Input
Amino acid sequence: MQQAPKHADSNRCGAARREWLANQEVVACTSNGPFLQVCKPMPTVAANLIVHNEEHVLAECLRSIEWVDQIVVIDAGSSDQTRALAASYGAEVAVVPFRDFAAQRNEALQRSRCDWILSIDADERVSPALRDEILEIVRSHRCRYAGYRVPIHSWIFGRRFRWSGTENEVKLRLFRRQQARWVGAVHERVEVAGPIGTLSGPIWHESTRDVEHWLRKAIRYRRYAVGDSDGAMLAAFGMLARRLLLHAGFLDGPQGVAFALLSAWEAWARRLDRAEAFTEVTNGWHGLLLRVARFLAGAGRRRSSAVRIGQACSAGRCPGRAA
Output
């Protein structure tokens, strides 16, 4: 893992301490009167990830956070090479049986030792702009916020979505370790004690690669079905209208329409608590809808963001890697 750069202000701490400071990796100095300079350790950043069978996307994520001081990975019992891959990047890996999402994230939080926490998922990448912004903020000693929201730029079915309800997505992803905790079983959120700011640099999110990937995610969440048959169709049409019309999902092209159809179907299935709807999707109208969605998702499909980001890395422009 790359070491944090020495702070430019270290030479101001006085000749008597310059030799000692030259060997320190993270030191900052501030003025405390006309003659006295106060030096204290730089704030540090830990990246937290919760994973399960993520070897196909994890490497690029880890490359984008090589600049942090600590990487904590909580694995729910992967059967692939996820743990070995994480360890090869210097991550501290622990196997913790899955209970719920908040519990997994709190486990990572408890195992972290740094001042700040950057929460990121395996299918996400930290953009260079966000990396630079985080380093400037946390190492300045002038930050008055307890946490920061971060814009999320999503790729769905190989296309960068700018509508469909994803256009204004921001999430609280950077926060002080001692002032935060996670709550919520499935759509978990972090509660932070203190004021919240907003950053401009984005996280790049490979949300859904294809229809099969979407289906696997839907099956994973089916345990949280509502079981309200009276509102099933209303929920489906409401979701369809929200994705396509309210959030102008049609402007995301055929992929936007496919995403709206699948979101509506998922809302219907969850309301009915129809576990078979998530597993027997090749039969009847379920299968027909899935085939239509697969056709739309692949229509004029661009190269997937994973491919494009991988090529950018080969050209020296990988998120988190110096150009």
